[in-house]
Each structure stands twice: as C-alpha cells, then as structure tokens.
Amino acid sequence: MKFYLMHLMPYLHLDPDYDQIHDSAWVTLPNSYYDPKKGAKLYNRYLDELEYGDQLGFDGVCVNEHHQTAYGLMPQPGVMAGALARRTKKVKIAILGRALPLLNNPVTVAEEFAMVDNITEGRFIAGFVRGIGSEYHSWSANPALSHDRFHEAHDLIVRAWTETGPFAFEGKHYQFEYVNLWPRPYQEPHPPIWIPSQGSSETIEWASHPDRRYTYLQTFTPVAMLAKYMQMYRDKAAEHGYEATEEQLGWSVPMYVAETDEAARREAKPHIEAFLNKFLRMPKEMLLPPGYLSLKSMMGVMKAKSAIGGKQTIDDVIDKGMFICGSPETVRQQLEEYRKQIGFGHLLSLLQFGTLPADLTRKNMELYAGEVMPYLRQSAAAAVEAAQ
Hints:
The chain has 388 residues and is an alpha/beta fold. Helices cover 46% and strands 15% of the residues. The protein has 14 helices and eleven strands.
C-alpha cells in the first residue's frame, strides 16, 4: 500500500460572504477577490507543505489542474511539479491530472511530462482527466467532444513517448506532420498513467482494458459509491480475462488527525465545512454541462454527487465516509476497515482543505505520517504475506 499527499492549493483568503452575491467560487467569481500578495505567500506555503511530505515519508505528492477558481490555484500543474522536482528527493510527483480535452496541442503535455520525468529520474506519475464540467465553461470548450478529444490526445501522447520520431499523426481533432519528442521519457516505456474520475462507467471500462490497465483513482465520493466503483473496475477486468490488483485502484479523501476525536472534530469543523459549502459549491449546470456525460454515467455521477448537495456539516461527510476525522487510533481503524472491505493500493490524503491554516495542516501531516501511515503499511504488508 502506498501513501500520497494530495494538495488542491485553495485560495483560503476568500471573503466568507462572497456567496451572498455569487453562486460559486468557480468560473464566474470575479478575480478582484484574489490578492496577489496573499496568493504569493500561499503558493510558497503550499509548496513547503508538499516538500515536507517528502521528509515525512510519503510515497508521493500530488497536484492537479483547475481553471478560474478559488478552489485550487493550479491552472498549470506542471509549474508546481517542476518546482517540486528539484526540491524533493524521494517522493514520486503526480500530476492528477492534465485535462486532455482542453488541449490544443497534446504534444506540449508529452514534452512537459517527459521533462519532469527526466529531472526526477523517474519519480513522475502522469495523470490524465477529462476535467470536470466547469473547466469547459472556463475554456469555452464543447463538452460533447470531451470523450473523443480525450482519447485522441491520450493516443497521441503515448505514441509520442514510445515511438521513434519523426512520425505523422492524422486524427479527427489533432494533426501533426512531425511528432518527434525531445526529451524522451526517463521511464520505460513511459511514466505510469493514472486516471482520476468522479465515477464515469465509460472511464472505468476504458482504464481497465487490458491494453492499458491504468490505475483508477476515485475522487471525493461516499464510501458506499467508492466500493461500487472499485468493484466495477474489478468486474470489467474479469470480463477481459485478468484479475485487477490493488495497485490499479486508488482513493482520494480529505482527512484530519488530532490528539482525540473531540479535538479533531473541533479543529477541523470550520475548515471542512468551508470546503464543502464554499469551495465546492457550484450550480449543477456548471458541474455537468449538456453532452459531458452519457445518460448512464450522468445518473451514476449525479447519485454520487447528490451526497454533497445542499448545505453540509462535518457530521454529514464523516457519516458517509467522505471525510476521515479523529484520533490516530480512530483514523487507523476506519482506514483499515475500508482497505479490507474495498481493497485499494493507493491512498491519497488531502491534509489541507478549505481554510485549514498552516499550523493545523502541519500538525495533521505529522500525526498522520507518524501515527497512522506506519500502522497501515504494516497491516497491508502482513495481509499480502498471509495471502501468499
């Protein structure tokens, strides 16, 4: 089992009363709310936290891509990955991930990722996503073309990484007379590819195909739905004639660890509720624009996301398993139970969320790394040994 430190890099200085005027922190929130002096300090604080994850013994650190939002200040995650590449020594660096359908030139991502892979000497994980619906509003992109553009961009990037150039690429959306990647990736045949998702059945089927067997990462979702999507991946793999391993399954979830259950809830409450009710808030038509999902996937994702509709409390998300919060013992027990029931090989912990300040983030990281991760590592290793 591997442990990763995930960061969203929110603009936590957002005016708490913004929602009296605006219906979302995404796309339409005026950037007059952003103070570059405060934002500059936040960027450096957040990079410090990810670098500290290297010292604390995490297996990897993760950044992602969002546009025109206070939810996450990483419209170009490669900038963050490049900064981390030279300042970390052991952790893998994951971009989870680039929104491929938004790209006008996917070869630039092949180049960018290959550079980070070289600088880190193979400590890089490539994440590819379609991007949530709001990104299509930010980018003025057609969501109905999302699937086609994703698959074509993916194919072009993988070919650029693995085929000797120059070669021509003639697709529906992308055409190149010369594809000839300099530099080539450090890892052979290319960096591992992870596919984060909200639970699209088409994405699960595509990622599990034997030609790919990509790691599927389920993001912020009730644990009952998590179990369903993990099992869906296993079932699809079985249909293709192979058994999916835990290495192909990952879960991303916010967590908070304090000395006692009571302290954890008290300290986390205002910050996780700001995350839920301020930063995540957006109209349904912004999250799921027409044409973005098939009807089947739309129904599944709407069911999963209905759990975070309306005003949410810390108790709501703890009860659904969407937020892990408590003493080290409580968090250990809950994560161990989920690991045994569901089975996943990658656990991505969001240890800064919403408005959580630097001191509490640092404490959360230290308690989780010092008193939760070692126990789960031993337990997972013992389970593997017993199964052999």
